[in-house]
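User: structure tokens for this one?
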Amino acid sequence: MLELRHDGSTPLVAQITEGIRALIEGHTLKPGSKLPSIRAFAAKHGVSVFTVVEAYDRLVALGLIHSRANAGFFITRSAVLAQDDASPEREKPVFDTAWFLRQIFENRDWPLIPGCGWLPDDWMFADGIRRGLRKLATQELTLSGYGDPMGLLALRQFIAQNLVQELRIQAQSQQVLLTHGSSQGMDLVARALIQPGDTVLIDDPGYPNLMSLLRSHGAQLVGVPRTRTGYDLTALEQLLQQHRPKAFFTQPRLQSPTGSSVSLAQMHQVLQWASQHDFMVVENDIYADMDTSQQLSLASLDQLQRVIYLGNYSKTISPNFRVGFLLAHPQVVEQLVQLKMLSGLTSSEVAEQLMLNVVTDGRWRKHLKHLHERLAKAHDFVAQQLQNLGFELYCEPREGMYLWARHPAIEDSTVMVEAAVQSQILLGAGRLFFVNSQPTGWLRFNVAFGVQPPLWQWLEQWLTQRQLLNPKKLL
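Assistant:
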């Protein structure tokens, strides 16, 4: 009834899941019929019990089967009826931001996820976190109440002092607002600045989650083209003349997805235009700790007059802590803290105390230095692999997390992304990062997840099948 290929490139879990799905859609498996037990299926097909458990769990999550206590797994009647009502050909997934979010967070345990936006576990500051937890266990904690709406004072003081030293942003602790990750910070800023119908400028390509967030607040998005060296200033000047933007949300340093950075001269020009055309600049600088040059930021040039600055510790310590921060003019901070309390009261003081323990750990700077070295090596390796396969690189920063690349023979990278999903490989589809979601050959590669040989074996095989492989051999 179901044949598995143990020597195939498709993982066994995916073969079982898709095989049973096909049997359901083809009405070979009828509504209410019972599937073999996990052990029986494993014995019959020569696979591990754990493989069958994972496959059955996925089918349950898809609503195709359900379990009955002490009875086993059965085909769900509603799932079969839904297939009867659908068209004969299964609809392809819609590759939009919602799809990307689901794939990232629901399938983070896939073996290959070069399209994700975080570092692998063994790249994080695990030792520092363990030491921070041990220290936290000895500290007196306030468990009653919700803490300071602005966030833990000691951490805010550390952030202010650190930004003065590292980026020359002159700020006091009362200008620092701690948030539940930088995502909450962007949401607070959007709610403070944007009214339905307002025009907002945004990097194009840029951050898809931010685009969805701004649209949810009723903003009319206008993309500012990125170049290999920053902004297309000619295009930006024309956009400012055509529109009256309320704000410009931008990521000057090691931008996602392109990896490009903006020069100081361009940042000066943007700030001049912000004053001339009366708009705010929201600077997302979450990759600052990955920049060895410590170049100045928009906030350091403007000193928080027209710039709202966002940062976090998710990229270099752990995204699970959800500790972010923003800096702004005192009047803006007062408005933002009120919005923070309305939406979620306060952020976690326990998490903020733990984060303070981690960033004041004596080995924190050594961790960053080691991380810079690993990223540089990963950039070199992934860049070489891509070029050997015939891909074109947008730029080669050798810092940060991303390389933006395309194959000249592939007009829409969604075709490759869809094929990769079938093999439990998550790629960063380029169209997700554009304001108008137009088809594009570009893909975002997280270099930290690009050092795994199976990724390049799959890409080589896929390109070979389509006779698109560059004659060079992989390293």
